[in-house]
């Protein structure tokens, strides 16, 4: 059994870490900002005073924090992970962050004789709780093979996207583009149906049996109709991911016009006070433009 450091026991990190604990792995975490969640504490998680101490006590250090600046702070800030590493340890960043920054972080960690994988996930809180996450990995094959048994405790669809660090993050950005545009398409369709006088619930039911069927129509379409906008996956986090997409596209001289439109709709939701809504709440921005609701709140 491995000694695993896990930094970022939030809405997704906590159940992910709990699966590792259930398999018998020893868990170390840092508690200078938030207490250890009860589910992890009850399973024996060991509290450390700093990320450096977590790294010193662990063979593998997993990060699951919100954004690029937080990853950089955890890794390279005062008393950060890098200060506690020794040769042969492995850092696994499962956050969703900048592919460009990831390459730099990996270079700095591997220069110290340690392994590094970027392994962002998709599947949200439900996927984390059910150990059914999709995990997109960038990094050396040897390092991936070493960590894959841990990934298998947290996810179902595990892919080494490429052997270059940053490939996993690039895949996650692509994932978020697809998800955002599908949410936008389902939102438009249901708003159109409602404005035309059809029953959006029946329209969705009919579409679920045809070529337009999708996971987004199934799950998020139901949320739009039932008005269940508790996250899930928060709009503010999807905004962050689409910012990464648009910034990277600018660097690559790639045009992503519909991604930009989806981001503007998320921005409109944020302006309405909806940063914390589930990302299916994008439909509210389109409802406002149409002056018609899919269903009453």
Give the overall shape.
Answer: elongated
| Percent of sequence in beta strands | 5-15%
Fraction in helix: 40-55%
Biggest sheet details: 6 strands, parallel
Our measurement of the CA-to-CA distance between the termini, rounded to an integer number of angstroms, reads 49 Å
Structural class: alpha/beta
Strand order of the largest sheet: 3-2-1-4-5-6
Query: Helical region count?
Result: 14
Radius of gyration: 20 Å
Order of helices and strands: EHEHEHEHHEHEEHEHEHHHHHH
Count of DSSP strands? 9
Uncertain regions: pLDDT < 50 for 5+ in a row? Answer: none
Average pLDDT figure:
96
In words, what does this structure look like?
The model has no long low-confidence stretch (mean pLDDT 96). The strands form 2 sheets. This protein has a 6-stranded parallel sheet, sandwiched between helices. The longest helix has 29 residues, at 167-195. It contains 14 helices and 9 strands. Helix 6 (99-110) links the parallel strand 5 and strand 6 (115-118). Helix 9 (167-195) crosses helix 11 and helix 10 packs antiparallel against helix 11 (215-226). The protein has helices at 13-22, 38-42, 51-57, 68-76, 81-84, 99-110, 124-129, 141-154, 167-195, 200-207, 215-226, 235-252, 257-271, 283-290, and strands at 3-7, 26-30, 46-48, 60-63, 90-93, 115-118, 121-122, 133-138, 155-162. It has 297 residues and is of the alpha/beta class.
């Amino acid at each position: 059994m491995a000694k695993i450091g896990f930094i970022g026991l939030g809405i997704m990190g906590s159940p992910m870490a709990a699966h590792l604990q259930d398999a018998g792995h020893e868990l170390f975490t840092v508690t200078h900002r938030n207490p250890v969640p009860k589910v992890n504490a009850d399973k024996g998680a060991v509290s450390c005073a700093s990320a450096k101490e977590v790294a010193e006590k662990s063979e593998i250090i997993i990060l699951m924090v919100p954004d690029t600046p937080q990853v950089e702070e955890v890794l390279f800030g005062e008393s950060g992970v890098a200060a506690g590493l020794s040769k042969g340890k492995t850092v696994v960043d499962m956050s969703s962050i900048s592919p460009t920054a990831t390459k730099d972080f990996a270079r700095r960690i591997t220069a110290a004789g340690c392994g590094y994988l970027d392994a962002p996930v998709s599947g949200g809180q439900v996927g984390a709780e059910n150990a059914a996450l999709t995990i997109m990995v960038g990094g050396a094959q040897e390092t991936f093979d070493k960590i894959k048994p841990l990934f298998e405790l947290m996810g179902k669809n595990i892919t080494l996207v490429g052997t270059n660090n940053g490939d996993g993050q690039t895949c996650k950005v692509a994932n978020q583009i697809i998800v955002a545009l599908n949410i936008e398409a389902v939102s438009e369709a249901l708003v159109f149906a409602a404005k035309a006088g059809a029953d959006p619930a029946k329209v969705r039911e009919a579409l679920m049996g045809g070529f337009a069927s999708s996971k987004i129509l199934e799950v998020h379409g139901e949320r739009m109709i039932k008005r269940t906008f508790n996250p899930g996956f928060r709009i503010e986090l999807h905004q962050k991911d689409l910012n990464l997409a648009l910034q990277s596209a600018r660097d690559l001289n790639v045009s992503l016009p519909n991604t930009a439109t989806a981001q503007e709709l998320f921005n409109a939701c944020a302006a309405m006070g909806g940063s914390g809504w589930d990302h299916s709440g994008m439909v509210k921005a389109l409802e406002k433009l149409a002056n018609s609701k899919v269903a009453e709140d």
